[in-house]
Amino acid sequence: MTRQLLSVGITLPPGLPAATATSIATMAGRLGFATVHLAEVPSSELLEWLVQAAAPALVVIDAPGETAGVVRVNDPASVTAARARLDAEDAPRPVQVAVPISIGRTMNEAVARADLEPRFAGDRHPRLVGIFGTFEQAQEQVLALARAGADDLVLDVPLERDVADVLAQIRALVVGATPELLDAPPSTARTAPPPTVFYAGSEPG
Q: Count of CB atoms within 10 A of residue 130's CB?
């Protein structure tokens, strides 16, 4: 029996060449990722390409600024607090953990991937705020987030090398048949599926 622990998506940073963005979106869709997130609205032509490439994953255009239920640090306590706030407000929104990630089969591989990614400089390094380490360490971190009440992971991935391998490892973090995964409490805060292109923070139309 196999069950998905959390919904997982990836973020495409602004400024990627169209061919690179489309290739990554294609891999995400084929690997079973739920969403591909964009920080800004691309050209209509590129958006159409990304929607087609990512299917069946959904393309999500994130709203600027802070959004209720989005936690930007790998911290189970922050996830629990966000879950409590949404529950108190009776807000039918998932708790989303949006963080950078760098994992590897060894710690050295995780470090190398992070060090090669310019976007991970400073206070957004995965070691400080994200998911970081070996696959086993990363899976423990993801399990802790799920137990704290997270529903979705939206991950900023290193793109400098081996992106296909990174995406495959990320997908394996949330799918499996281990007792830990099967015993994780199911989410009760899922919303209805959004349209193919969803502008986060707006009402689906």
A: 24
